[in-house]
Write a structure and sequence with these properties.
Organism: Auraticoccus monumenti
Distance between the termini: 84 Å
Radius of gyration: 29 Å
Membrane topology: Multi-pass membrane protein
Strand order of the largest sheet: 2-1-4-3
Number of strands: 4
Order of helices and strands: HEEHHEEHHHHHHHHHHHHHHHH
Strand content: 5-15%
InterPro entries: EccD_transm (IPR044049), T7SS_EccD (IPR006707), YukD-like (IPR024962)
Subcellular location: Cell membrane
Keywords: Cell membrane, Membrane, Transmembrane, Transmembrane helix
Length: 458
């Protein structure tokens, strides 16, 4: 019989102290959510006081009671299983083994064991450490053109091996590791290529090689092309920023301020752009009741595949913009001026609040991590600038305690509840305030206010 996990329903038989009942448990619900209904169907709703979740338990024969906080699908409940409804004070004991050896074997077999796949992962991890460690060791002695050429040669070799393993031998697991090593080695070789201490020129060369390597691996290996595309787009954005910082010498902070504002400005346009890139045909809104009744909108035969492609493209572009915004914000934080720090703080807050607009796991995660990194870096920089140790201790402790209480309460009570639309509107308002503050702060970083005051002679 098929499992209920695949169709999100598990048809089980529940044996209570007085009757047997057949139920279909939804896989997306927790045991604690369905338990009150099971108790009611079994005829014991009014036989005991207190919450049914704390009074009754569901358990398999010979096993511990099922965790009320876990989903039905996560517990592996299948069609045709028999579950026992028992009072918590009278749960059935675990299975007892007469044979000690059999008991030990049964218990240890449930623990994770070393498998051949772990051996392969270990070999790939050691391979990665060796390939990435060699350029670093060589650079400690005398970084220069020889180290760069050696690293780029390793990148070329790993790239060719990745394409060969992917195309000819169908070894995707090894090929994808070698492909990422090719990208990392290419960036490292580009960093050491130019014999200069100028960070902008080094970044320009490194990002150029990363762009070349990631694009080649995306096309050559055809393994996870969206991930390599995300790295390629990130490298392209950083190339543009590095060029803007190098062309006017000595102005990297100003270039970073303008670039981060542009990145945040284009983020809302990414979803529509992704649908266009995936060529998803958007339906036209009916203009009359007759058009609404006819419902003759053509549907693409591969609409699902195109929608998935659009989702992956959006994740790649969000990764690129988030990484770019993080690096640019770090440049602002290191500058230390109040205008640069305020701009970095506004960027971090805007990213944290904008993450609410994306429901995909990867999409929201990259934006959240970017916002957390930028906000944390800004706060740490501000803390290092405070000279009064007592003030820093008091304020820092207060902020940490407040965040601990708020996040702890959210993790314990509010994480799975629907937030009131009022709070959502407050979040929208705060997000737009943070975004609107970016432009004036960019002008402050560019010293345009001082320029205007100088023109007026004040």
């Amino acid at each position: 019989m098929s499992t209920g996990v695949g169709e999100d329903l598990a048809r089980v038989t529940v044996i209570s102290p007085t009757r047997r009942i057949d139920l279909a448990l939804p896989g997306s619900a927790t045991i604690g959510e369905v338990l009150p209904h099971v108790v009611r169907f079994s005829g014991h709703e009014g036989s005991a006081t207190g919450d049914p979740v704390h009074t009754w338990v569901l358990q398999r024969l010979g096993e511990d009671p099922l965790d009320p906080n876990r989903l039905v699908s996560a517990l592996g409940i299948r069609d045709g299983e028999i579950l026992h409804l028992r009072q918590r004070q009278a749960t059935m004991p675990d299975a007892a083994f007469d044979d000690v050896v059999d008991a030990v074997a049964s218990s240890t077999n449930t623990q994770p064991s070393w498998r051949p796949v772990h051996s392969r992962r270990t070999a790939l991890a050691v391979l990665s450490l060796v390939l990435l460690g060699l350029p670093m060791v060589l650079a400690l002695g005398r970084p220069g053109l020889l180290v760069s050429l050696t690293t780029l040669g390793l990148a070329l070799g790993t790239g060719l091996a990745a394409v060969l393993l992917s195309r000819a031998f169908d070894r995707a697991a090894v090929a994808v590791v070698l492909a990422w090593l090719c990208v990392a080695l290419a960036g490292t070789g580009g960093w050491f290529l130019l014999g200069t201490d100028e960070i902008g020129l080094r970044s320009l060369a490194a990002c150029g090689f990363v762009l070349l390597a990631s694009g080649t691996m995306a096309l050559g290996t055809a393994i996870r092309p969206h991930a390599f595309a995300a790295v390629a787009v990130t490298a392209l954005l950083l190339i543009l920023v590095a060029m803007a910082a190098v062309l006017p010498p000595g102005r990297p902070v100003e270039a970073a301020a303008v670039a981060v504002a542009v990145l945040l400005g284009v983020t809302p346009l990414l979803p529509a752009l992704c649908y266009r890139l995936a060529r998803v045909a958007m339906p036209n809104l009916p203009t009359s009741a007759d058009e609404l009744a006819r419902d003759d909108q053509p549907v693409q035969s591969d609409i699902v595949a195109r929608a998935v492609a659009a989702d992956r493209i959006l994740a790649a572009l969000l990764f690129a913009t988030s990484v770019g915004a993080t690096i640019l914000s770090v440049v602002l934080v290191l500058d230390g001026r109040w205008s640069a720090l305020a701009l970095a703080g506004a960027v971090g807050l805007a990213l944290l609040l904008r993450a609410r607009a994306f429901v995909g796991l990867t999409q929201r995660l990259v934006v959240l991590i970017s916002g957390l990194v930028v906000t944390t870096a800004t706060v740490v920089r501000l803390a290092l600038m405070v000279q009064d140790g007592v003030l820093l201790t008091v304020v820092g402790t207060t902020v940490v305690v407040a965040l601990t209480v708020a996040l702890g309460y959210y993790a314990a009570q509010m994480y799975n509840r629907f937030v009131s639309p009022v709070w959502g509107r407050f979040g929208d308002i705060l997000e737009w305030l943070a975004i609107m503050a970016i432009i004036p702060l960019v002008l402050a970083v560019l010293n345009l206010y001082q320029l205007v005051r100088g023109i007026k002679g004040t």
